[in-house]
Write a structure and sequence with these properties.
- Keywords: Membrane, Transmembrane, Transmembrane helix.
- The chain contains 2 helices and 28 strands.
- By secondary structure, it is mainly beta.
- It folds into 2 domains: about 35 residues; about 300 residues, 6 Propeller (Neuraminidase).
- The strands form 6 sheets. Strands 6-5-4-3-8-9-10-11-7 form a 9-stranded mixed β-sheet, with no helix packed on it. A 5-stranded mixed β-sheet has the order 1-25-24-23-22.
- The N terminus is likely disordered.
Length: about 350
């Protein structure tokens, strides 16, 4: 009987070896693909509600009260959906001018909306009650993104003709033009290495810029002066980009293999939400890949606070992120999703 027990114990111990090897390999591989920083992770999604838009060509244009507004990359309409994601109404945008045939990007800010198309230097403004827009009568540069501070002042993100690098310019009806073509720190080429995503905090009147390829956030006032900069939680402080030049045109192109650090951002109260693509120490690779990982920072003291793991919808990656009230709204494929969050104790 004792011999049988010893044999059984030996078989049991030996059976654990393959499991141990599998776990060892798993954690070894995880350590290779992760970085040496650790997140404070909160799995606090209480409810998820999705709205089928029918098409994957929508983007979040803004919100007003209990309404979410979506623009469309293929038609110049606006889709109005209540924040509970139950009813939708489509509005035709009416505007005239030399750029009418171009598909403009729509931004909604409370009672106002804006149409912009950088390659044509065109910008329109109107009221959401009528959805009729008129051309904004101030000078515009060629731009790739514009942020409306109000109906008469705008911050443009563009490529400076002097430096051929990313720059900022403010144009206003009541103020002289302000340009800052040294606001972004060049590491490689000044174009791809300084590329990023931006959001305007209306509460604090601050323009926040998050680099795509490095762990840095710039906080800029409405006159384009740098208020402060701080680092995101990951350790990638230098942009890992390879840039080539096309000889026939002189245009710069981004080669493959660039390490994307931060993808998009949003503002909630006094906090900055940044979607990260960098996995940290002890994080599960599969869960990381199937979630949108949002790091939360305090804009007042520039500190990292915690991280939300939000599950992706319909196996589609999230392409846009917005916070309306206390809910997070995302776009993934043809679905607009609303996440009810138990926010961390901030």
């Amino acid at each position: 009987m004792k011999k049988y027990s010893r044999t059984l114990l030996s078989v049991f111990v030996l059976s654990l070896f393959p499991i141990g090897i599998i776990l060892a390999v798993y954690f070894y591989n995880l350590s290779k693909i992760s970085y040496n920083f650790q997140r404070n992770i909160d799995y606090n999604v209480l409810e998820i509600k999705a709205f089928d838009l029918g098409f994957n060509s929508y983007y979040i244009a803004g919100h007003k009260g209990n309404k979410v507004y979506l623009g469309n990359y293929t038609i110049q309409n606006i889709l109005e959906i209540d924040t509970s994601l139950t009813d939708a109404i489509s509005h035709q945008i009416d505007y005239a001018g030399s750029a009418k045939g171009l598909l403009h990007r729509v931004q909604v800010d409370s009672n106002h909306f804006y149409l912009s198309y950088g390659p044509d230097k065109s910008l329109y403004h109107g009221l959401t009650g009528t959805w009729k827009a008129k051309a904004v009568s101030i000078k515009h540069p060629y731009f790739y993104n514009v942020t409306a501070l109000n109906e008469s002042a705008f911050i443009y993100e563009y490529v400076s003709s002097r430096t051929q690098e990313n720059s900022l310019r403010k144009m206003s009806k009541f103020q002289s033009e302000i340009e800052n073509d040294t606001i972004f720190e060049k590491q490689v080429d000044g174009l791809f290495c300084t590329a990023g995503t931006s959001v305007f905090s209306r509460k604090n009147r601050l323009f926040v810029y998050v680099y795509f390829y490095r762990n840095e956030v710039l906080v800029i006032d409405s006159n384009l002066k740098l208020v402060k900069k701080f680092s995101t939680i990951d350790p990638i402080s230098r942009a890992n980009v390879n840039v080539s030049t096309i000889e026939s045109t002189g245009a710069k192109v981004l080669a493959s293999g660039a390490t994307i650090v931060n993808v998009r951002c949003a503002i909630w109260k006094d906090y900055l939400l940044v979607q990260s693509k960098i996995i940290g120490k002890h994080e599960d690779e599969l869960r990381f890949k199937n979630s949108t990982v949002i790091d939360i920072y305090d804009l007042n003291n520039s500190s990292y606070l915690s991280t939300l793991y939000i599950p992706n919808q319909q196996e589609e990656p999230i392409t846009q992120l917005s916070v309306i009230g206390d809910h997070i709204y995302t776009l993934s494929g043809r679905y607009l999703s609303r996440y009810t969050i138990k926010w961390p104790d901030l």
